[in-house]
Amino acid sequence: MSTLEHLDDQIIGRYLDQPLRLPADLRRQIEAAWEGAPVQLYALADLDQALRLVESWVALGPRHVAVARRTAAGTWDVASVERARIEAVREAPGLSANTLTLLGAPGEPALVLVRYTHRQRRAFENIRFVVEEQLEGREIAPVDPDRAYADGVARPVREAQAVVSGREVAVIRRLLGYLKPYRRPLALGMTAAALITVVSLVPPYLAGYLIDRVVRPAREGTLPLGRAGTIAWLAVAAMALVYVIRQGAAVVRLRLMAILGEWVARDLRAELYEHIQRLSLAFFSRKRTGSLITRVSADTDRLWDFLAFGVVDVSLSLVMLAGLGAVLLSLDWRLGLAMTLPVPVFCWLIYRHGESINRLFIRAWRKWSRVSDVLSDTIPGIRVVKAFNQEEREIRRFGERNEDVTAEFNRIHETWTTFWPLLMLAVHGTTVVVWALALPRLLGGGTALPVGTFVSFLLYTTMFIGPIEVIGQIARTMNRATTSAHRVFEVLDTEPEVRDDPEPVQLRPVHGRVTFEHVTFGYDGVRQVLRGVSFDVTPGELIGLVGPSGGGKTTIVNLIARFYDVTGGAIRIDGVDVRRLDTGQYRRQLGMVLQDPYLFHGTILENIRYGLPEASLGEAIAAAQAANAHDFVTKLQHGYDTVVGERGHTLSGGERQRVSIARAILHDPRILILDEATSSVDTETEREIQEALERLIKGRTVFAIAHRLSTLRKASRLFVIEDGRLVEHGTHHELLQKPDGKYRRLYELQLQLQ
Amino acid sequence: METTLLGRQGAVLSLEQRDDGRLWAIRGDEERAVWVRRCFPWSEPGRYLSLRDGDENEFALVRDPAELDASSRDALEAALALAGFVFEITRVLEIEEEVEIRRWRVETRQGARSFQTRLDDWPRALPHGGLLIRDVTGDLYHLGRPAALDRHSRALLWAFVD
Fold this sequence. Notes:
The complex is a heterodimer.
Chain A: H1 3-15, H2 24-33, E1 41-47, E2 53-60, E3 64-70, E4 76-82, E5 88-92, E6 97-103, E7 112-117, H3 121-135, H4 145-160, H5 168-176, H6 183-200, H7 202-220, H8 225-278, H9 281-286, H10 289-331, H11 333-340, H12 342-378, H13 382-387, H14 391-442, H15 451-461, H16 465-472, H17 474-493, E8 514-521, E9 530-537, E10 542-546, H18 553-560, E11 568-573, E12 576-577, H19 583-587, E13 590-593, E14 602-603, H20 604-608, H21 617-626, H22 630-635, E15 643-644, H23 653-667, E16 671-675, H24 683-697, E17 701-705, E18 717-722, E19 725-730, H25 732-737, H26 742-753
Parallel strand pairs in A: 10-17, 10-18, 13-16, 16-17
Antiparallel strand pairs in A: 1-2, 2-3, 3-4, 5-6, 6-7, 8-9, 8-11, 11-12, 14-15, 18-19
Chain B: E1 13-17, E2 23-27, E3 30-38, E4 49-52, E5 58-62, H1 70-83, E6 87-97, E7 101-108, E8 111-118, E9 124-125, E10 131-134, E11 140-143, H2 151-157
Parallel strand pairs in B: 6-11
Antiparallel strand pairs in B: 1-2, 2-3, 3-4, 4-5, 6-7, 7-8, 9-10, 10-11
């Protein structure tokens, strides 16, 4: 079972309250009814006709569809329908209830009518898709039904969440594993921290010792003054030494752990970024860019905080509390008990306070998001606000929400400013109790209590507060760290879907022959975006890909670039299956000019040389000249050194396109992909870009996608892609000769529009 | 602009639920299987109902079901119950925050249910009061009167209700 399948099962088991699979007994019953034919797909219909939650199943076989409903006796009532009787499929979506109807002959009652929530919709879409394909006379290659069901049901949760929360301990252990390379500084840092803890216990002891063994005997005359003075000064010197050691150790601890934390954060960031670069495009389409950026920046930073300080603070606070408890009990067990017994209560109170303030924070964040909504609405849409003269209304809307969120944050402040003084009062209360218990004994009643011991005791009690605070926050600290760790590990655990062959083939050079052999492809589930596409393109051909949007043109070029792997058939480059190629080396021979060219933050020169950083300045200028970019670049104040991209100089769409063409020219690819390269520019700019492109495409195999068919007249051949199929191919003139040709229809339609 | 149920041709619209399980709209000589979409599912759920055919084209816009004949109205109401179905939360048992999602365990009129929302996807306050929660799959959960829920539910919901 793959990681993904395992994850899907975990998600269904943990979150979705529904079976992981079609029940085995039901499967057997259905397959027996179908005379052994297998269940090919299935879905859970979780609503009955009265819209109550139930467990019913719809199963699809090669010749049948079955609907199974659980009877009151717990058995299955299975009704099968022959697929040959199905004439139409309808899905009626509702707010939360969807209805799938399989219809037979007109006027006949529905063959199958089931209802289900959105949670089951993907699984039903698979069934619907296969049945619709059958109605169109097409067959779909069988898939693993369990996998299709689990993927359909679990996917929304999988995409919303980093990973299914594993045990926190396991995550923390994995995180601590990153400290392994730094055992030495870690040991030093921990030793320094332990030293701080131990030496912190010394000054109160010395204070008590001085009072009981030096000051009092000297006053009572049992210790000579000279000897008493010597001991006292030695004790003061020891105290000074303790403080120096303590602060020296603090420097070592803080510096080492802070630096060590940075090293680990750096390692995590580097590993994460390197891994992100290797991941397939499918991963990026599932995750939001902002979320990935946060993982590399904020989450690793939070982990730094945890590793540098959280780990040490928590462990040493535990040691400190245990040490203090032991010392207090050994000094005087009665007073020690009075002081230590309330400690667990204080920790619990801090924990409870954390929980309750968390609720306040949720409320405040919710209201904060309402403030952000106004900002993200009105700042990008300020022209609309002004055009409709709504400034006052927007100011009022913002003002109300601003007031609202301020009230919530003030409520938080009220809570913590009440809690902490009260907690301190309780801590001081225990000190008062200790005084109340100690005073009669100090005055001579009950068991004797030396004054010095009592002073030591009081000094130790002041040291309780810090560790109690840390222990009380332990759950929150761990929670924050594990959340960030989950998010980071999710990316690290994601395997690239496109992987190189262990012994990859290097084509030197790539000639540019591209062959599609019965290629089928689907981005998810069983829905196929390409269905059996075959063609053979010889080196140097310019292929125009045309057809309606969503037909599969961009998918074809994505597959040529090996951003994804085919689900059926094969793509060959110069006769070699693209999956056997060394992807890095192959992509160096491949260029792309996209509709919305992306320029990185950096100079124009850096952008032109992006694919070939070692290119000379002369080569960069030559590429820019060929791309019709040189003229406008030299007119800029900083010429080729102009900084572009985010936060840089703003170039127009046409200018950015020409820089990207120069980048492709310099890259000198054998196979070139032009994806709507001229669609978003004006006619004059288009002419200039077209001119640049004509220089660029010479001697290369080119796949050009364009909606404006006039731009593809010079294509060697045109491929009309519709509904995932290659429906027509030929030259512009050949295709125009076809009386009922799809290309001809598209072309005439565009002529009319012009 | 006034909208009437008479539709484009001005013929009277009638509706019926047929054996094929679908709602059929008949207007003059024209009849089509349709499904209902509320134009204002939360601010005006009972009026302005768009009847759409299998290709998502609007066949008719019903301003007010009261303008239909009784049997059409019954058929429309049955279809509306289906189209407007959302889970009605009667009790909140647990709300837990996990990595990037919030996990809800609730009792609904339709049965017990667990669902998940994104952490930044907050319940939406409805125009006539109440809350609407959308889970990661798109299913909707309606809380008509949060104040009328039991104490435990109210305490759990406190952070999400104004």
